Amino acid sequence: MIKLLIISGSPVKDSSTDILLKEIENGFSGKVGSREEIQSSFYKLNELNYIACQACGKAPTPAYCFFDDDLIRVYADLAACDCLVVGSPIYFDTVSGQLKSFMDRCNCFRPADFNNTDPDHDFLKLIPRKRPGAMVLVGGERGYFEGARRTIAGFFKWIEVTNQGMVIHMSDDFHRKGAVRDDITALTQARELGAKLAVQVLAR
Ligand SMILES: Cc1cc2nc3c(=O)[nH]c(=O)nc-3n(C[C@H](O)[C@H](O)[C@H](O)COP(=O)(O)O)c2cc1C
Asked: What atom in ligand 1 is closest to the CA of residue 171?
C-alpha cells in the first residue's frame, strides 16, 4: 500500500493550487497503475480547525503536539506517508497563513533534545526515513515565489522529505479562480511530476 499525502494551503474552492495538486495526484496514480494500491489523503487546511503554534517550550513526545485538534489526524498521515505534496497560493511573498500555521504546528516532529541524547544535534529526529515530495505555488504575474519555496523547503527538511520538484502557475487574472485550467504547461508539468514521484516511491 502506497500512502500519498496532499496538503493544500489555498482557502479557495476549486483553486488553481488544488487543480495542480490533483493533477500531480493523477500523474502519480497513472504511473502506479495496478502495481500497488494507493491510499491518497487530500487535506484542505482551510476546512480544518486548529490553533497556531503556542511555542510550549516542552517536548510533547511521544505525541507530535500537545494540542488535540483537527491536526491530530494530519500528523498521523504525515508520519506514515510515502510521499508528500504541498501547495500554496502566494500571500505577501510567502505561503498562505493556513499553510504557515500548519508547518509551525509540525515543529515537534523534531522536539528539542533537552537531555542531550545526540551530541551532534539540538533536536531529536522522530521520522527515521526520507520520503520524496514536491510543491505547488500559485501567485500573480509579478509574484515573488522564492519566499514560499524556501519556507516549504525548510519544512521538508524538518520532516525528512526530499524535494523532487515544483510546479508554478503565474495567474494573469487572480480574480478568476482555477485559471490554471488554461495553463497547459503547468498542468503537464504537474502530471509529469506526479509520475516522477511515483517512480521513486515504487523503487523504495
Ligand atoms: C492575502 C493575499 C495576499 C496576496 N499576496 C500576493 C503576493 O504577495 N504576490 C502575488 O503574486 N500574489 C498575491 N496574492 C494573489 C494570490 O497569490 C493569487 O490570487 C493566487 O491565484 C491564489 O491562488 P489560488 O486561487 O490557487 O488559491 C495575494 C492574495 C491574497 C488573498
From this structure: 21
